[in-house]
Amino acid sequence: MTEPLHLIVGAGPVGSALALRLAGAGHPVRLVTRSGGGPEHPLISRVALDATDRDRLAEAAAGAAVVVNCANPGSYPQWERIWPPLAASILHAAEASGAVLVIMGNLYGYGPVDGPMRRDTPLRPTDHKGELRARIWHDALAAHEAGRVRVTEARASDYLGPTAPVANGLLPRYAQRTLAGSPATVFGDPDAPHTWTAVDDIAATLEVLVRDERAWGSPWIVPSNPAASVREVLRALGERAGTGEPTLRRMPRWALAASGAVVPVLREVAGVLYQFEQPFLVDAAETTETFGIVPTEWDGLLDATAAAWRARAVA
């Protein structure tokens, strides 16, 4: 019996981890990126393709049982230009091939929330990036409800893990400084509780969602460890790396606003600063109860992350 083909768009930390998981389980994977890059494995075929080209992407998706959107189109200022045609193209490819569409999402669409975010928490974004992510989900869900495609989405918080790149999130940027023995300037409250999601846990969740029809028609929160503040995580990484207590300097909101007037990416950070000014928490109990997924053990995750991020900081 031939194993079903999985088409993955994007070979960042999550797309690569998922591709290796699926290939390791014996599933053929077609990995689409602009450059044709990604991990090497006998069951992974890497395709150089602009995924916004809906006709070419639909051709690449022909015969696929699952299409997974793991794309990450550049920095915040590029989202409004790149995401709409990219998401529409991936949705079209899933419809044209009859594949299940699995979307790698985030928590931006919820906006500021009092208490933990759950999969049924209403989407009430206050920033254009959150509005964009909510629109991507609503468009896909509308296609699902119309019977044109079967769709689900995994929603994760900020990445933690050895493969999380410096460009992906604020925590790796802070650690790039503190694990090199330098002070780090941080945004928001470094002592506010915050949920961090292991890259491997995201891939593990996606691996389940691609094959379990109970996931269809709904988003699912990726199981994550109990919340820890920015300071607590950087301190734990510093202890493991031997760099000691991190020195953190908090940038006032007014200074961020002033900088954002001339630096576009800082203006975009201001739009999601609420995530670091108050507790930012998730409740993934339904995901665990339904699919049996549990987060990676915290100490082991920190051990591996500290080693990799320290090596990167001093390289």
UniProtKB/TrEMBL annotation:
<dbReference type="InterPro" id="IPR001509">
    <property type="entry name" value="Epimerase_deHydtase"/>
</dbReference>
<dbReference type="Pfam" id="PF01370">
    <property type="entry name" value="Epimerase"/>
</dbReference>
<dbReference type="InterPro" id="IPR036291">
    <property type="entry name" value="NAD(P)-bd_dom_sf"/>
</dbReference>
<feature type="domain" description="NAD-dependent epimerase/dehydratase">
    <location>
        <begin position="7"/>
        <end position="211"/>
    </location>
</feature>
<protein>
    <submittedName>
        <fullName>NAD-dependent epimerase/dehydratase family protein</fullName>
    </submittedName>
</protein>
